[in-house]
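Weekly modeling sync, notes
Attendees: S.R. (lead), two postdocs, one rotation student

Agenda item 3: backlog of single-chain predictions. S.R. asked that every request posted to the team notebook include the full sequence so nobody has to chase files. The rotation student volunteered to paste the first one in as an example of the format we agreed on. Action items at the bottom.

Example entry:
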Amino acid sequence: DIATSGMRTELARAEIVAANVANMHVTRGADGLPYRRRTVVLEEAPAGSFADALSRADHDAAIGGARVARVVADTTTPFVPRFDPGHPHADENGFVLMSNVDLFRELVDMSVIQRSFEANVAAMQAYRAMLQSALQNIRA
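Predicted structure, as returned to the notebook:
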C-alpha cells in the first residue's frame, strides 16, 4: 500500500509537470495574468491498525504512505518579462510577461519522479519476492 501510494502521488506530480510544460507559453489566462507554475503538496496518509487493514471494505484505499494534499500555484517565482513589441499582450514598452515555468526545472522534476517510480517498483518487486519465498517455505 505504501509503495502504491507513492506511485499515485508521483503520477499526480507528473500530470502537474505536464500541465506546466503545456502551458508555459500562455501569456494571459482568465485572470489576465500569464500561466503560473503549479506544484503538488504531499502529506502523510493516515495509517490505520493492522486489524483495520484486514477488515476494510475498500481494498484500493492505501493504509499509510503519502497522498496529494493540494495543488498550489508558485507565487514566489516572478513572471519573466520578454521584449516582443509585436505580441498582442505587449505593454506600451513592448514587453510581454511570460509564465514563470522553467523548462529545465520541470525536466529535473520529471527525472526525480521517474526515479521515485523506479524505487517504488523495486520495493513492490522485493515484497513480491518475499511473499513467494514465504509460500515456498510453507510448502516445503
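Discussion: group reviewed the output briefly. The longest strand covers residues 66-73.
Action items: rotation student to repeat for the remaining queue; S.R. to check formatting next week.
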